[in-house]
Amino acid sequence: MAELNVWDVLRKPRVTEKGTLLAEQNKYVFEVHPEANKIQIKQAVERAWPEVKVTKVNVMIIPGKTKRWRRHLAQMPDWKKAIVTLQPGQRIEFFES
Known about the structure:
By secondary structure, this protein is an alpha+beta fold. The chain has a domain at 23-64 and 73-86: 2-Layer Sandwich (Alpha-Beta Plaits). The protein contains four helices and six strands, in the order αβαβαββββα.
């Protein structure tokens, strides 16, 4: 796989009710590139926010939902989610605003 940019690896933050509860435990949820591994995700977070240190990365592939449009069914694409755990006391201000 070619070298990915920080923002190619971290596609977008997932701001949900569950993600907000996890943020209180220093865990942040991102949608990531499907081919990115845990090491690349950790490096991308530490490059994007140099003041934080990642202690753990959990990765899962979320199956796409089936959507109905008129009489047709469409399968949405699968996507990859990463839960990034930071050292105690550290925060990503991007999620706080």
